[in-house]
Design goal:
Oligomer: single chain
Helix content: over 70%
Distance between the termini: 173 Å
Radius of gyration: 65 Å
Order of helices and strands: HHEEHHHH
Number of helices: 6
Strand content: under 5%
Shape: rod-shaped
Length: about 240
């Protein structure tokens, strides 16, 4: 287990370096906060396990040799003051360190390749689920847009039906108005014809009544005298025509 842990640690960034890299990637730029992303490659290290940031921290104050001087001085101080005692465990740890380095060099790439494969599988599964969910949401959005389009079409259909009903009502109104006009005209014509017939009957009755009264007022002697006078007038007229 220790060998596998050391191999993975050699191929992956240390926790501090990964945290700093992720924090640097997630730093706000221009007032907007970006999503934190997982680094694909390990951070730079020196001597196999010391992060590059530690050396950069000393460069501004001590120069290039500062980190090495600090490291050697610290180790010398710990050993000279016997804070770190080199007993038999020290040599055992040194042996384990050499074995760990050899394991990292030999087994590190294999373990790293296997770990990368597992990570890629997990990431592919997550990405597949995300893509599937995005597809479902996209289909739902498209379906909603289609339903909205259908709703708009339904509104247009309702407007067309309203216009059709309005035209039908207009046609029915015009038809009924024409029927009313025809009925009123027929009845008015009937009344006019009745008045004409009544006037003709009255006129005929008046003529007959006048003629009857006139004939009734003429006596037989007056009729005979009138007839003789007419004959005389006709004879005189005939003589006049003959003489001319």
């Amino acid at each position: 287990f220790l060998i596998v842990f050391v191999a993975i640690a050699a191929q992956r960034p240390l926790t501090v370096a990964a945290t700093r890299t992720a924090a640097a990637a997630a730093a706000p730029s221009g007032g907007s906060i970006e999503r934190r992303q997982r680094p694909e490659h390990p951070g730079k290290v020196r001597l196999g396990f010391i992060p590059e940031e530690w050396f950069q921290f000393f460069y501004n104050k001590t120069g290039v040799t500062g980190p090495y001087t600090f490291g050697v001085g610290l180790i010398t101080y710990l050993c000279s003051k016997e804070i770190y005692v080199m007993e038999h465990e020290y040599y055992s740890g040194l042996s384990l360190g050499i074995m760990a380095v050899i394991a990292v060099k030999k087994l590190g790439p294999i373990v790293a390749k296997w770990a990368d494969g597992e990570i890629d599988k997990i990431e592919a599964e997550w990405k597949e689920g995300r893509v599937a969910e995005l597809k479902v949401l996209t289909d739902a959005i498209e379906a909603e847009k289609k339903e909205q389009w259908r709703a708009d079409g339904a509104l247009l259909l309702m407007e067309a039906k309203k216009e059709n009903i309005a035209l039908q009502l207009e046609a029915a109104f015009r038809e009924r108005a024409m029927n009313v006009y025809s009925e009123v005209k027929r009845r008015l014509d009937y009344q006019v014809e009745c008045r004409h017939v009544e006037r003709r009957l009255n006129q005929k009755h008046m003529v007959n009544w006048i003629t009857k009264n006139v004939l009734a007022s003429i006596s037989p002697q007056q009729e005979k005298d009138t007839l003789n006078k007419c004959i005389a007038d006709l004879s005189a007229l005939a003589l006049r025509v003959k003489n001319t």
